[in-house]
Amino acid sequence: MESNKQENTRVGSDTVNPPEECVAIMVSLTSPRDACRLSAVSSTFRSAAESDIVWARFLPSDYLSLLSRAVHPVRYTSKRELFFLLSGRHILIDRGKMSFGLEKSSGARCYMLSARTLSIVWGDTPQYWRWTSLPDSRFSEVAELINVDWLEIRGKIQSKLLSRKTKYAAYLIYKVNGHGSRSFSFQPQETSVIIGKYISSHAVSIADRDETCRNTIMFRNFLRWRGVLTLPYLEDEDNDNYDDERDITKLPCLRDDGWMEVELGEFYNNEGEDGEIEMSFMEVKGRHYKRGLFVQGIEIRPKI
Fold it and tell me: What is the set of domains in the chain, with CATH numbers?
């Protein structure tokens, strides 16, 4: 009888406190965010949640291959440390032409394409663009717009490089000086992201908002004077509810690193079998000259 009682106690104890390896396997089926939360449950969960079993599952399956492409050696003592290193900052890969990181809450892959990897119309013509360096840039070179009337920037990335079953967005990472902001305030810029048959497009403005309102009115008055502004626009302008930003669907925001970003579009990466994803930022309709734009690159990251 006593033996049976001890056996029941042992079985009951095992049920309450399962082996750490089993706990680790269960935790690995959650997410990085949940793993951090579960570590506060008990010492068993904390130990399991910090194990390599858990964090190996949150890292990309090809993380060793990615690390081999890093410009500088990546040093770490555990897979948990590696995860937080990659989710805390990007590492430069492919001779510094691209950067890679992880989204902290999900572990999804993030990339930034440097300006050098982008297709920029007239980008190699010194009178229109020049390549320079800025101390707060992730990359050694950024593209500086000198003076163009046709602005067209395109980037591409393979869908198989991204995390599956994940909603992504692409962002232009840039800076613009005061004089440059005025040159972008006459006409909205157009952006798009294309994957397969799916197209996501926006009208954006990277200019100062007050400057945009003033110059939009001036520009449309000029077009009306030239007789090329269509009647619907004239009717809108005379309307008391006229909104100079009615066509703008996305506005830029300031990043923690001091750069600006504006969304180019979003897409869902299903199985990573849709081939190439093409992203663009353009302003070719106004045909007025633009200047003062610094392009660091295009970032592709999960849309949370």
Answer: 2-58 (no CATH), 108-302 (2.60.120.260)
